[in-house]
Design goal:
Oxidized Rhodanese, domain 1, alpha/beta, five-stranded parallel sheet, 6 helices
């Protein structure tokens, strides 16, 4: 009985630790809209591929074309904004096509390069679910 209890406690602790290690900060489209409209200091980091960025991106977003952030070449594209990301104090919103794996990989890369995780956020639903057409720009 005692061994079963200890194993259960260890299993719960393991799940808690592994779940916490993969958490990401997300931000709603409504909050980003408010920041853009109020011209708050925020770094909008868009990782969409060039064709998608050209078709639609949030006004003021920085183009990196780093999607899907799987290769050294992709991470190199993020490295071009690394100095700005490290020296500023503003929050960083990562915008990818759908707010999934590419955004998480960009988040992980920036965090590994020394950008404070407290400043990193992923746009919920990515560019695909951005509902505010008036705040879209075209290249």
């Amino acid at each position: 009985m005692k061994k079963i209890f200890i194993l259960m406690v260890m299993a719960v602790a393991f799940v808690s630790v592994s779940t916490g290690a993969s958490s990401y900060h997300y931000i709603s489209a409504a909050k980003v809209k408010h920041q853009v409209e109020k011209q708050e200091n925020v770094l909008l980091l868009d990782i969409q591929v060039e064709e998608d960025f050209d078709q639609h991106h949030i006004t003021g977003a920085i183009e990196t074309t780093a999607y899907p952030v799987k290769s050294e070449t992709d991470r190199g594209k993020l490295a071009t904004i690394l100095a700005q990301a490290k020296t500023s104090a503003e929050p960083i919103v990562i915008i990818c096509p759908r707010g999934g794996g590419g955004a998480k990989r960009a988040y992980d890369y920036l965090k590994a390069q020394g950008v404070a995780e407290s400043r990193l956020m992923i746009l919920e639903g990515g560019q695909a679910q951005w509902p505010y057409k008036k705040l879209l720009a075209q290249k």
